[in-house]
Design goal:
alpha+beta; Alpha-Beta Plaits; 7 helices; 4 strands; binds uridine-5'-diphosphate; binds magnesium ion
Length: 139
């Protein structure tokens, strides 16, 4: 049973713009411990699978293109109430709606190119962490 963990990706736009250091600094300053982390690049098959829940949405094709166009930083993070607290520090999906000081408010370009991912539940945190760090197995 995984508790108190979430999964994040610093997305290609954030890496391209040189924001890795600033974003990781904000994450650790907010009390998250980095449990696992890597610079990697998703294949088209990876991105399609990771975002399969959105496959009927009109933005799915663009999302897969975006997420595969360059390196990302994938990480598993630990903190009390990790999933909810991380969603708070990243801010709303659309940066125009994101609260002041959130990572998306500071670094996102648009609702599509929004700098960072955060899991939306403990269950998805475990699935997404395993996707990137444990050969697709649940842990
Ligand atoms: N996305 C998009 N257009 C939209 C909504 C979402 O391009 O109208 C992209 C965006 O990169 C977002 C990702 O698809 O982060 C997953 O969408 P979701 O609604 O799960 O948002 P999140 O959980 O990332 O805030
Ligand atoms: Mg989501």
């Amino acid at each position: 049973m995984v508790t108190n963990r979430t999964f994040t990706m610093l997305k290609p736009d954030a890496v391209e713009k040189g924001h890795i250091g600033a974003i990781l600094d904000k994450i650790t300053a907010s009390g998250f411990r980095i449990v696992a982390m890597k610079l990697t690049q998703m294949t088209t098959a990876d991105a399609k699978e990771f975002y399969a829940i959105h496959k009927e949405r009109p933005f799915y094709g663009e999302l897969v293109e975006y997420m595969t166009r360059g390196p990302i930083v994938a990480a598993i993070l630990e903190k009390n109430n990790a999933v909810e607290d991380f969603r708070t520090i990243i801010g709303a999906t659309n940066p125009e709606e994101a609260a002041e000081g959130t990572i998306r408010k500071l670094y996102a370009t648009s609702i599509g190119e929004n700098a960072i991912h955060g899991s939306d539940s403990d269950e998805n945190a475990a699935i997404e962490g395993a996707f990137h760090f444990a050969g697709r197995e649940m842990f």
